[in-house]
Each structure stands twice: as C-alpha cells, then as structure tokens.
Amino acid sequence: NAGPLKVLGAALSGSIFFFIITNLGVFLFQNMYSRDWQGFVQCFTMALPFFRNTLAGDLFYTFTFFALFLAAQWMRQPKKIS
C-alpha cells in the first residue's frame, strides 16, 4: 500500500536522482565547466534554479495524479441510500 509519505518520498528521490544524473552528465560530457572541483560545484550550483522547477512540477503532478486516482476510486464505490 502506497501511503502519502511513500509517494512523497518517491517523488522527492526521483527529482533528486534526475538532478544528480543529468548534471553529472553535463559535467562529464560537455565542455561547459572546468574539469576540477570548482567546475563541478559551479555545474551543480548553476542547475539549482532548474531543480527547483523540476521538484515543483514533480510534486504537483504526483499530487494531481494520486488525487485523481483516489477521486475515481471514491466515485466507483456504491452509494448507500438511507
């Protein structure tokens, strides 16, 4: 059963892994930053505004999809007439 904390954790970890992998790829395979610690830090620092937007989008769509799923489940339940 995927509770709200597990879903939130999955969305956060997905965003973090995407940030690390893509920026590591930029650092290693592009010639945008110097190949030293300073270039590594600069690469990740310059990407922080994009991470903020990615995280916000991931959390928004995760919430939306799970809310729609729960709403669809609620609507399918038989209604009791009193």
List the helices and strands and how they pair.
Elements: H1 4-29, H2 37-46, H3 48-76
List keywords for this structure.
82 residues, mainly alpha, 3 helices
Backbone CA Rg: 20 Å
Strand tally, please? 0
Mean pLDDT: 92
Distance between the termini: 31 Å
Shape: rod-shaped
Number of helices: 3
Structural class: mainly alpha
Strand content: under 5%
Uncertain spans, ≥5 residues at pLDDT below 50? none
**Portion in helices:** over 70%
State the order of secondary-structure elements, H for helix, E for strand: HHH
Largest sheet: none
Q: What does this molecule look like?
A:
By secondary structure, the protein is mainly alpha-helical. The protein is 79% helix and 0% strand. The protein has helices at residues 4-29, 37-46, 48-76. Helix 1 (4-29) packs antiparallel against helix 3. The longest helix has 29 residues, at 48-76. The mean pLDDT is 92.
Q: Could you provide a short overview of the structure?
A:
The protein is mainly alpha-helical and 82 residues long. Helix content is 79%, strand content 0%. The protein is rod-shaped and about 70 Å long.
